[in-house]
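agent> fetching stored inputs for the pyridoxal-5'-phosphate docking request
agent> found them:
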Amino acid sequence: FSERGDQIAAVIVESCPANMGVVPPEPGFNAAIRRLTTEHGALMITDEVLTGFRCSPSGFWGLQQQAGEDFAPDIFTFGKVIGGGMPLAALGGRAEVMDLLAPTGPVYQAGTLSGNPLATVAGVKTLQLADAGVYQRLDARSEKWRSELVSALDAAGVTYRLQNAGNLFSVFLGVDSPVRNYDNAKSQNAEAYTAFFHAMLDAGVNLPPSCFEAWFLSDAHDDEAFEVFRAALPRAAQAAAQVISA
Ligand SMILES: *Cc1c(COP(=O)(O)O)cnc(C)c1O
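agent> prediction call returned; pasting tokens
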């Protein structure tokens, strides 16, 4: 911004990066982007496609608000949860910016499936069903699943870093310091994760297939599912430990 501030139209950020594993921004990071963009007349676009309606009813932004970081981007983008399993995406923001979109404003926006009735109905219904109880259960479950994961990795002597954004989490194997950026994320032991993944799969647990993917729990992950997960962990943790020590 100090070099090209007047040429920058917008800054787009994942509210909480979660496509390289879960890498929550440092406190104040997003608020600083807000300050800079405001200062230079650029828009701030916050991508909550993955975190929206998942980390909290108001996404990762909501968690930041709860932590006392009071700022708002100009535009939010959504996908995934908002469609209730159907293909749907959405954006929203300040009226002044949204009013630039057609039919109110001059910026044309359209797509074959824009506002698709089936997807919007599924999305609305999902958001209606996602009441406070769902989020409480998800948060509590995530904590329980994470602590079981931690116990198994500790017992097998695996070094790891577990990071979360509310109920969203991921584990970096073979890393023992905070993962703050993509370089840190790439320093994890991907082969250890492959061994871990396959041991879990053999025991009936289908984890994210990549160590750069976040782990998602849903309201369907009940006690029975947890028992399958818990029972599968020790062998998988040992498989990871073997790769790391090899
Ligand atoms: C999945 C994802 C997208 C892509 O969303 P589409 O609706 O599939 O285009 C964009 N941003 C983030 C952070 C995502 O996780």
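agent> quick read of the result: The two ends are 46 Å apart (CA to CA).
agent> awaiting further instructions
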